Amino acid sequence: MGLQKLRAWIQDFTKLALIGVGNPLRHDDQVGLEIVHQFKDRVQDSRVLVIESESVPENYLDTIVTFTPSHILILDAALLNRPSGTTQFVESIPEIPPSISTHTLPLYLFTSYLQRVLDTHIGFLLIQPNDLTFGEGLSPEVQETVPLVVATLLNLLE
User: Fold this and answer.
1) What is the per-residue DSSP string for 49-115?
2) What tens digit of pLDDT does each residue of 93-114 get?
């Protein structure tokens, strides 16, 4: 699942902003939103800020900066050229032309701003989608990944 890197990256956090991004009307693009939604219902920790940003994480810049997280973890669907539901943790993403991104502001601009304003570590937990067409609900392959990621995140925060 690519979570060994995540485990090492998150081990010394003092405050974590967990941000789910994606379009809830494009099937598997909403996987990051579903993960943080389920996670938020199971964690009560003042060191963790949970945000369901949909496709506009920049709307939460003030909230994130005010929280001053030591670590920011962004969960999103991404084309990884792997089997559907596969996860991969990375600490940077390439500049993606806006025409092929489902986000209002490309994530690299969003994270570049946060890096300039905060002394923080930024990571991405990416999930390979199966279906990005218009519609609601996750594909079965991606849906199976959601509780595994939620359990892993809960475990990492203990």
Assistant:
1) EEEEEET-GGGGHHHHHHH--SEEEEEEE---SS-TT-EEEES------GGG-SSSS-HHHHHHHHH
2) 655 444 444 545 677 788 888 8
